[in-house]
Design a protein that fits this description.
The protein is an alpha+beta fold. The protein is 38% helix and 12% strand. The N and C termini lie far apart (35 Å).
Amino acid sequence: MLVSNVVQQLGMMARAAGIFLVFAAQRPEAKVMTAQLRSNLDNRLILRVASEADSEMALGSKGAEQLLGKGHIAVRLPEGQGVILAQVPYLAPDEVREIVRALRTIKF
């Protein structure tokens, strides 16, 4: 079984159960990000990509190829607000560990 098939099934189950699934790909390709997988991944956070075709694949629209890099991201949410551009601040590894540690203490 291909990894993309497993991720696709996991995405469907996560969506049905209300679980957030984070899927990270090194580069957007049709054989990695199949149409069915993309349809099950509602929120998309995209860093700069090489071409308009890659942007269409990853984001569903053009624009991610024009990002500046260094934390500049394009976001597409399922509410249909269009593409949102944002700048993500840099966090040092120690800061990330501290945030994760704090999140683990929260009881849902």
